[in-house]
Amino acid sequence: MDTLLKFKRLAALSTDKALIEKALQASDKLEVKDHQVRRNTPLPSDLKSEQKTVYIKGFPKDGSQDLVESQVKELTAGAGTVLAVRMRRVPNKREIFKGSVFVEFATVEEATAFAAKPIEGKVVHMKYVAPPTPS
Predict the structure, then answer these.
(1) Which of 6, 91, 112, 134 is the most buried (most CB within 10 A)?
(2) Domain covering 53-126 assigned CATH 3.30.70.330 in the classification
């Protein structure tokens, strides 16, 4: 539980351990026991998250996380299910946003289709390019 409270977004919502535990106990994906939290099922062995991730550049470097996430939501509307948005930041200076994000979609097909669409004012490409399949 202490590890979870190190996440700034969670700590901004609440630092009340009892309240957080109660909320986590409602999850069907997590197990809370003796103030410890763990997954009910193991992670899949092949997540393919890189293959489902698109790089988008062209956001304001002074943009807040909420602003950037809302812009990403607008850009990706109708493109599929977005699993995660990761803002790229300067190493050792985590408060400095680079103006680009990685957006992870639910499927490789959704990511590929989104990356193929031109978006005005943005640079968009797949984070991972699969090697050619042998013929």
Answers:
(1) 112
(2) yes
Residue 45 identity (one-letter amino acid): S
Distance of CA 98 to the CA centre of its chain: 16
pTM assigned to the model: 0.64
User: Residue-wise over 41-74: b if at least 16 C-beta within 10 A, else e?
Assistant: eeeeeeeeeebbbbbbeebeeeeeeeebeebbee
Query: Residue holding tokens 């069907």?
Result: 28
Return the DSSP state at 110: H
Can you tell me the distance from the alpha carbon of 123 to that of 112, in angstroms, rounded to the nearest whole number? 14
23: part of which helix (H) or strand (E)?
A: helix 17-25
Helix (H) or strand (E) holding 100: strand 93-105
Domain boundaries, the chain: 4-39, 53-126
